[in-house]
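name: query_chain
kind: protein
chains: 1
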Amino acid sequence: MDYGKLAPGGRFWTILASCLPDTNGTLEMAERILIFDTTLRDGEQSPGASMNIEEKLRIARQLERLRVDVIEAGFPIASVGDFESVREVARHVRECSIAGLARARFEDIDRAWEALSGAADPRIHTFIATSPIHRRHKLGMDQDQVLEAAVAAVRRAVRYTANVEWSAEDAGRTELEFLSRIVEAVIAAGARTVNIPDTVGYTLPEEFGARIAWLMNHVDNIHEAVISVHCHNDLGLAVANSLAAVAHGARQVECTINGLGERAGNAALEEVVMALRTRHDHPAFNALETRIETTEIIRTSKLVSAITGFPVQPNKAIVGANAFAHESGIHQDGVLKEVTTYEIMTPESVGLATNRMVLGKHSGRHAFKERLKELGYELDDQQLDRSFRRFKGLADMKQELFDEDIRALVDDEVIREDDHYRLVKLHVVSGMQDTPMAAVGIQAGSETILEATRSGVGPIDAVFQAIHHLIPEAGEARLNLYQVSAVTGGLDAQAVVTVRLEQGARLVQGQGADNDVIVASARAFINALNKLVCRDHLPHNGV
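structure:
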């Protein structure tokens, strides 16, 4: 496989990256596995996970620090908001290729280029469905019509850039002969990345790997393009399928942070990357590498969770709270004697530092600012002032402050800085013999504080009833998820609350953090209501 002969299309087309010693002590060239992150596009298709431009830009900058190869920033024709998000990411992120999704339609491709043209390395990603069920029921097209549309789309895209990716939506259920024919045609038309998605998460690793191997052996011009895979997790096999594809010749993996995505989600970036790194001893992977800065994984995971309001389950691989925890006596004994008895990678390798007290109530603003820099935060003066005030308040109530406390506090403050409605007052009365009552004050923009008092079946319900009364434009928003998690251990731990609201066909999520779970709940509810009443809901499509 001569990847060195790939046609130029941007800085990341050089696949031969470095020399690494093999298991026999000789030198061989390491092939680059490109990491294509679609958190901002496919990840945002998770119900309730819509992000605004500022939030997308924060995540994109962190993905740049993570050193992903490609960021799929959105679907420009879907809405004005999506277009502007892609354009802003393209303008500000210079160390990654920036991709925009487009259907096999000229107006989609033209709009994508309009959004991407300011990028350092723009990529147009165009797609069309290829499986019999999609051709028949969704497109109403036969094989020849689909092939013609795919080739026309690629030819349109290469008028703008040589960095063109084409995807066969539902390739996992597409006839192999037709898949081979259309792949060969789009490569001949100029596609330099060809993506083979398991769009509905249907295939098993053995058969998906065999599908990639078939293409490698039956498409004459296959070595003129990078073969990519985009696997969904409907059967819990997205990572396994992606790795099977890599073992059979795929050299780009499309994935998301925390496995975020519609339905059961996508292949989790952190799992794919760490599997390739940890199992470098495996014959299929020992000559492969990514350029990912793995010590940024935890920070990226936490940022995406905080912005989307999707908490990471404690037993989630790599980034879950329990991923490096050992409770069993046998396990603890083994780890104390030799850490590799039960840890196949180090916590430090993914950016997880041991909890340690960093600051206290006597710490000053300068020390707080310096610690934020160490944690990777760059705040403006207003953000720093608000965060420092909350830090001092928290320090008065907690005996020990950990890095995780600071991250939760700052993320919570920055996430809601654009919220129109903000919590400014809360008083709750509740007890076994009392009717729960909540007095709430919120500020709407720069207007006078609005106040209301309401009762409920419990203190949280009373708070939500009062807030909902003060924001009547939320209409009949219904709470369908309420979740509480602790930032650290101990009775004085901060609480992070996630709520999900439903209004008709719309779902939004909000998140709030505070050492008082009722305050955190109020913050989360108001954050979700802001998204519901103040932000456009973006339509989506994709592979």
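note: The CA atoms of residues 166 and 194 lie 5 Å apart.
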